[in-house]
Design goal:
single chain; 322 residues; mainly beta; Immunoglobulin-like; five-stranded mixed beta sheet; four-stranded mixed beta sheet; 37% strand; elongated
């Protein structure tokens, strides 16, 4: 395609001056006209004052976004060098639509329901999970409880979340309830950051109840049967100490007493009761009837006694040494 430019002069063999500021590649025909005129390259800025000539990027909602069919034959970068595709398909045109990096925060695991918790004690922790599914770091993470009876434990007990969360990562937030009086306590935990956090605030609920200290030891009686004196393995029985109260049972000790305690022994490897026992849990005390050759034959009686903050729990033991 040829372009004709008015020579603007009658002088023989004088070439016309292009009306554009170009780097031309052209020839002059026999009529002294510019032909086969080419120019370039195209620029996004003015060659005179370097100002931007226009914004050629797509805008959000454009039908050209993700409209191309992915194919290896397509270029992997757009006009500006941005990788493409940025989404599920190539954008139509020379410029790919690039979403600005942003964090996307959400919280899961709620609501947290703590149930009945004894007054002046602290519940076991319940866990929330904070997610960042965006492509930028979530920053300025902060927690706000609407009631001081709900808290996040200090240190590692409080979970793994810090003030920031990297893109594509999760962290945990542990919460406990510490009632001071009887009654239902409803509250919220609000999680904030440099972007809004979906799922926040999280509902919290728990009920303060009066402390109950109680325990049981079962079975309350056991007959070990006939056991030869000096036997390497005697007859075993596992007794279960249960914390039937709603607070930690403390001060736990166990002893053998009664008429013939020497014929009975504790089995440490099969006993796991310590000095405390959490509410609603149990532990084992294992006793063996093991009369010695030097001891007399006949029926032997003893008592297993457990003492703790709830009082005294006992089981009656009997066996016949042969």
């Amino acid at each position: 395609m040829g372009f004709m430019v008015n020579p603007g002069t009658n002088e023989a063999n004088a070439l016309p001056t292009p009306v554009f500021s170009l780097s031309p590649s052209a020839t002059v025909d026999e009529g002294n006209n510019w032909v086969n005129l080419r120019w370039g390259p195209l620029a996004l800025t003015s060659p005179v004052n370097n100002t931007t000539l226009g914004n050629y990027a797509l805008t959000a909602g454009s039908p050209a976004i993700n409209s191309g069919t992915p194919a290896v034959a397509y270029t992997t970068t757009d006009f500006f060098g941005n990788s493409r595709p940025q989404g599920s398909g190539w954008d139509i045109g020379a410029v790919e639509y690039v979403v600005a990096p942003a964090a996307i925060g959400s919280i899961t695991g709620g609501p947290l329901v703590f149930g009945n918790v004894a007054n002046t004690t602290t519940s076991s922790s319940k866990t929330l999970t904070l997610h960042n599914t965006g492509n930028a770091t979530l920053t300025g993470i902060a927690l706000t409880f609407s009631s001081t009876l709900y808290t996040r434990p200090a240190g590692t007990a409080g979970g793994t979340c810090t003030a920031t969360l990297a893109a594509g990562s999760t962290c945990s937030i542990n919460v406990v309830f510490s009632p001071t009086a009887a009654g239902l306590v409803n509250a919220t935990l609000t999680i904030t950051g440099n972007v809004s956090v979906t799922g926040s605030p999280v509902s919290l609920s728990g009920t303060g109840v009066a402390p109950v200290i109680s325990a049981s030891l079962t079975p309350t009686t056991h007959n070990f049967g006939n056991v030869p004196r000096g036997a390497f393995f005697g007859s075993l029985q596992i007794f279960t100490l249960a914390n039937t109260g709603n607070v930690t049972l403390t001060g736990i000790t166990d002893t053998l007493g009664g008429t013939n305690p020497a014929e009975f022994v504790m089995v440490p490897l099969l006993t796991n009761c310590g000095t405390t026992l959490a509410a609603g849990t149990s532990c084992a005390v294992t006793v063996q009837f093991k009369p010695l050759t030097s001891q007399s034959t006949g029926v032997k009686n003893a008592t297993l006694t457990v003492t703790d903050a709830a009082g005294t729990q006992t089981s009656t033991l009997t066996g016949k040494a042969q």
